[in-house]
Amino acid sequence: MKINRLLFILVVMALCSSLSIKSQAQNKQIKEGGWRGEFKVGELDVPFNFEVKKKQGNELVVTAINGDRRDDFNAKFIAPDSLLITLNTFEAGLFAKIENDGSLSGAHKSLVPGAGRVIPFTAKPGQSYRFVEPGKEVKPTADITGKWLVKIKGDKPTADRVAVFEQKGNKLNGIILSITGDSRELQGNVQGDEFVLSGFTGSGPSYVKGKIIDGKTIEGAIGAGATPTKFSGTRDDNAALADAYALTFLKPGYEKLDFTFPDLNGNQVSLSDEKYKGKVVIIELLGTWCPNCIDQVQFMAPWYKENKHLGVEAIGLAFEAKDDLEFAKKTLTKLKNRYDIQYDLLFAGKADKEVVAQKLVALKEFLAFPTTIIVGRDGKVKEIHTGFSGKGTGQFYDDYVKKWNADLAKLIAEPLP
Q: Thioredoxin domain spans which residues (predicted)?
């Protein structure tokens, strides 16, 4: 009896193993190496580049390439000829079908039911160019390397932006900063007196098209939607944004913040809790859907780990795509694990500026995710910083880090009240 049962188990195990191997063998092969894709946004083709590498089993790593920036995404087979490339914390994915010729076709879709637009794309292996095929380059009329003050055209007054470009022959890398954050790294080309840039780091494609009027003036449009934002630009080595510490502030009569929100376990946490008393507290208004918030987290998470022993605490107030704690637990746990966040993450509500105004009544002129609020040991708000400029902005990021460290050092050095 025991021998028969053992034989039965061995046979079942062998069959399962055989079926698993057969299932894996049925998956279509995807070519490793460099790829070039194109998103179809209306009538516009927005190119992006990525690399594919195989991991163990059926899993793959897809790496988006934007200038010097690399973003790794995990991919897996969801059918023998279909992949799901999950885009990290953005609750979005690339659903891709492997065609018979080895190319991919599919769409960028939100993983939040009923949310987000669907953006079709196609991709071909073995191609590394962005916009211009090798051998079809046109000599640039000018080199636009440097900083540019960008003025937005439109009916409503809009704060100036700053563009930073690096051109090498026909190849162009760049980034555009605004008071609410930056575009992340963009990559493209200069052809004659025209330039074009695109970017894709997970949340959706971005696009810039411009014309070089002369060596000191440019004009063009930003955006891959139906109504791109038109701009004009002037070369300016001293181009700068409005002071990020003077855009969001407390209403008259307020010196402190007061809030209570649930953590990832559903426990109510208040700024007035004993844990935060007498400490410098950094409050980050963020969302897992927000690229600049993710860049800020990548700065904040390791900084906190290095400095928490000095009497510093931090709180992430998350405003998510759905006003649902269970949904937020999933998105925020993913964020926490990915970046090893060791400070408290609280769910504050749906991602909406009006919701922020309702939940944090002391705030005036809330403009952007992320926004950083620094509270001193006496419990009073000392600084509020709007937006975030990531590492790709170069000197802008370096200046932010330098001021941040100096300001926090002073607040940490203050005696306990």
A: 250-409
Bridge partners, 48 (sequence order): 37
Burial class (CB in 10 A: 0-12, 13-18, 19+), 168: exposed
If phi > 0 it is left, if psi is from -120 to 50 it is alpha, else beta; for residue 321 that is: alpha
pTM tops 0.85: yes
Give the bridge partners for 167, in sequence order: 172
Q: How many residues does the chain have?
A: 417
The whole-angstrom separation of Cα 83 and Cα 95 is: 6
Termini Cα distance of the chain: 78
Q: DSSP of 68-106, one letter per residue?
A: TEEEEEEEEEEETTEEEEE-GGGSEEEEEEE-TTS-EEE
For residue 109, count CB atoms less than 10 angstroms from its CB and return exposed for 0-12, middle for 13-18, buried for 19 or more. middle
For residue 110, give the H/E element and its range.
strand 104-110
Residue 408 parent element (H or E): helix 395-413
Amino acid at 405: N
What tens-digit pLDDT sequence spans the chain (417 residues)?
444 444 433 333 444 444 344 444 588 999 999 999 999 999 899 999 999 999 877 789 999 999 999 999 999 999 999 999 999 999 999 999 999 999 999 999 999 987 778 999 999 999 999 999 999 999 999 999 999 999 999 888 999 999 999 999 999 999 999 999 999 999 999 999 999 999 999 999 999 999 999 889 999 999 977 789 999 999 999 999 999 999 999 999 999 999 999 999 999 999 999 999 999 999 999 999 999 999 999 999 999 999 999 999 999 999 999 999 999 999 999 999 999 999 999 999 999 999 999 999 999 999 999 999 999 999 999 999 999 999 999 999 999 999 999 999 999 999 988
Report all structural domains of the chain as residue ranges with CATH numbers, in order of start: 33-125 (2.40.128.120), 146-235 (2.40.128.20), 244-413 (3.40.30.10)
CA angle 141, 206, 113 (to 5 degrees): 170
Residue type, position 148, single letter: W
d(CA 173, CA 153): 23
Contact 316, 281 (CB under 8 A): no
Task: For residues 193 and 143, give the distance between their C-alpha atoms in angstroms, rounded to a whole number.
Answer: 10
- 351: part of which helix (H) or strand (E)? none
Closest Cα partner for 148 from 243, 233, 33, 26? 233
User: How many whole angstroms separate alpha carbon 274 and alpha carbon 265?
Assistant: 19
